[in-house]
Each structure stands twice: as structure tokens, then as C-alpha cells.
What we know:
Blueprint: E1 2-6, E2 17-23, E3 33-35, H1 39-42, E4 46-47, H2 52-67, H3 75-85, E5 90-91, H4 92-115, H5 121-128, H6 134-146, H7 156-178, E6 187-193, E7 199-203, E8 206-212, H8 214-226, E9 233-235, E10 238-242, E11 245-252, E12 273-279, H9 282-289, E13 296-301, E14 307-311
Parallel strand pairs: 1-8, 2-9
Antiparallel strand pairs: 1-14, 2-13, 3-6, 4-5, 6-12, 7-8, 9-10, 11-12
Amino acid sequence: xxxxxxxxxxxxxxxxxxxxxxxxxxxxxxxxxxxxxxxxxxxxxxxxxxxxxxxxxxxxxxxxxxxxxxxxxxxxxxxxxxxxxxxxxxxxxxxxxxxxxxxxxxxxxxxxxxxxxxxxxxxxxxxxxxxxxxxxxxxxxxxxxxxxxxxxxxxxxxxxxxxxxxxxxxxxxxxxxxxxxxxxxxxxxxxxxxxxxxxxxxxxxxxxxxxxxxxxxxxxxxxxxxxxxxxxxxxxxxxxxxxxxxxxxxxxxxxxxxxxxxxxxxxxxxxxxxxxxxxxxxxxxxxxxxxxxxxxxxxxxxxxxxxxxxxx
Length: 312
């Protein structure tokens, strides 16, 4: 099988990239990712090692609340209970809100225990947020994350002020969380090109493989920027199916260990070229991207003219 190394002459008007296509089967075999306004939290550090007691408390809270027609707890509390019951990962921000709520409601929970009123909303709401075992766990996580600074203040009056402010923030976020599907960022992120990746091609001469070195990919990336064509986006390499999209960020991987693509779930390779695109076309977003009809980026250009060396 023939293997072809591709390179470009940076000064040639013919060499380089013509457009970036959104395709179902990316030649580099890596899909892009699309995300909404909550992606920053989704890719932040998360925790799911909360105690089994918190899981069981959430399940019990859900069960008791259902028996009462779900009259207890806010929508945020009900969502939190489902997260805990399913042992889903929670962000550090969520851990802070858990601690704030549990501190605020502990008095109502203790009063319900004293009265043996296990249908009281104060009791059920406390369970929805993980119950008594969730509080020490949340405090441990926050001590580790914040180097104990948050817990230097133990005076009641100081802590009450902090708790009240956190509860206000919690309630203000409820509206946003409820309408996440109406406020998507419509952003794609993923690799555009990968060095030394064998890409299968077929023409009148038969089947063969081509590949780009990291140096060639850098040339192509730089030239695409210089030629101002990086915002040309289409569907499946069809110039008639243009997509209203533009690049908002791009980078070449220098250190795979610290590269920012890891924040989006990738395991990058040195020399890989990543791109981030904002898609303004809502129809393309709904009908092609969210539906999975297109899954990755594919650069296009007159690469067949750039064959410099051939290895049998």
C-alpha cells in the first residue's frame, strides 16, 4: 500500500485550505463536541464520592415527596436529589450550594426529628440535598479545594451572612437552569488536523494513505489565517451548503499534558490543530449537529497537488 507525505509551499496561491466542513465521518476519526451554556461547569472538576448515606437520604426524600404530591422543595432541590440518587458527579459550585442549604435548613430538620414529623417539608427538603451525611462531606471537599480559607470564619453572624448570600445566588440560578435549552451557545470544539495520522484515499491510481506532519499542519493553520478563509464552513464538503459559522478560537498543541483541549475531554497529541466555532445557523445546529448527522471537522483543499514523497 502506498503512503504519501503531504507538504505545502506557503507562498503558493494554490496551496492551503479552502474551507472547513462539518462531516459525518471525520478523516482523522475524532468527533467534535458541542456544548451549551453550562459546559464550563460540566467540564470543571467534579465529585461523586459522596457517602452512601447521602445517596440513600436523597432517595428517601424523593419517595416521601412523591407521596405528598411533590409539594416540598424547590425545583433546584428536586434536581439535586435526582443527581445524588443517581450518584451523578457534581461540580465544586454545587458542593458549595449543598453546604449552604444544609446549614440553613439544619434547624428545621432537627425540629422535625424532635417532633417525629417525617412529612414536614423541612425534613424532606433536607433529605433531598443529601441529609446529615452530606454536610460533613461537602465541608471536607471545600476545605481541600479552598485550602481551608472558607472555614476560618466560625462565628454565627459571619456564617449566616455567607449562607444568606449563597441562597440568593442559588435562587437566581434557578431561572437560568430551567431554560438551558433556550440559551445554547451553539459552539463546536474539536481537532481540525492530527499529525502523522494515516488518512485513506482513493483515486484513478487506486487506494493509498496520506498524512501530514506537525510542521505541515502548522503551515496550513498559519496560511489559513493569513488568507482569511478559516470562516468558510460547509456541510459535507459541499460549497452549495454553506454554514453560517465562524471561528472564535484556535490553537496548536504544544504540550499534550497541559493543553486546554483536555478541559473538553480530549487526549491531545503534540502538533494537533484544534478549532472552536460559533454556529449562528439554528437549523444546522438542530438538524445536523444535535441530531448527529455531522460529527466532526474535515479540512478541504487541493492536497493531491502537494505530494512530495512516496513510500511503497
